[in-house]
Write a structure and sequence with these properties.
Layout (H helix, E strand, L loop, with lengths): L6 E5 L6 H14 L3 E4 L4 H8 L5 E6 L8 H14 L3 E5 L2 H5 L3 H15 L4 E4 L7 H13 L4 E3 L11 H11 L4 E5 L5 H9 L4 E4 L2 H6 L8
Parallel strand pairs: 1-2, 1-8, 2-3, 3-4, 4-5, 5-6, 6-7, 7-8
Length: about 220
């Protein structure tokens, strides 16, 4: 199994430096990861480093809380694409979701998707904050809003991906949406379990360790 082709090589620390991003992108090329995932301020730098490679550039929007206005999320996503991003990972508005303002949550996602067109949109639903029924409902909203992926976690909440949640997500979205698992995937065996469960992408900062069959104690 070529697990590297599933990996979004992730560096979202608020203290990541330019040198860190340069090393991160070089590692992504070396190990042939699917994409890098970086904060939007570094998309231009990542583009310069990766434009002659097959590695995609993913960035985050409304991250990590999801509580930005829809207008801010739309602007951030469009600017990131102008800077060279190939994919957008946005955070669902959890406060609106828990307020049962599901139409507002739908509009938030739909407006970002409409603004970015064919650019893949992954929506982070933050499973650690949701019940089983909440996960189902969040996934249904994402499908209705034409998101391309539902994603488990930001990596900045109480916990990350779980196989139980991924199975619920897969059963809910069926073939209407892809799934990205992120948060706490630190070794090859764990990565393989998620792939076997039906995920299409893995968000992890432990990609190098995973590719070597080692274990990482990285936070994300």
């Amino acid at each position: 199994m070529n697990v590297n082709s599933y990996i979004d090589h992730t560096l979202l620390s608020s203290t990541a430096t330019e040198r860190d991003i340069i090393d991160h992108c070089n590692d992504a090329k070396k190990y042939k990861f699917y994409a890098v995932c970086v904060n939007s301020c570094y998309v231009r730098l990542a583009y310069q480093l990766l434009k002659d490679s097959e590695v995609k550039i993913c960035t985050v929007v409304g991250f990590p809380l999801g509580a930005s206005s829809t207008e801010a999320k739309v602007f951030e996503a469009k600017q990131a694409i102008n800077d060279g991003a190939d994919e957008i990972d946005m955070v669902m508005n959890l406060g609106e979701f828990k307020s049962k303002n599901h139409v507002e949550v739908f509009k938030d996602i739909k407006e970002v998707k409409t603004a970015i067109g064919k650019t893949p949109l992954k929506v982070i639903i933050e499973i650690s904050e949701l019940s089983k029924n909440g996960i189902v409902k969040a996934c249904e909203i994402c499908v209705d809003a034409k998101a391309d992926f539902v994603k488990t976690s930001t990596g900045f909440s109480k916990s990350g991906a779980t196989l139980t949640a991924v199975k619920i997500m897969k059963k809910t979205v069926k073939d209407n949406c892809q799934i990205k698992a992120s948060g706490g995937i630190r070794d090859f065996e764990t990565a393989k379990k998620y792939i076997d469960a039906g995920v299409n992408r893995l968000g992890t900062s432990s990609g190098i360790a995973i590719s070597k069959g080692e274990y990482s104690d990285a936070d994300y």
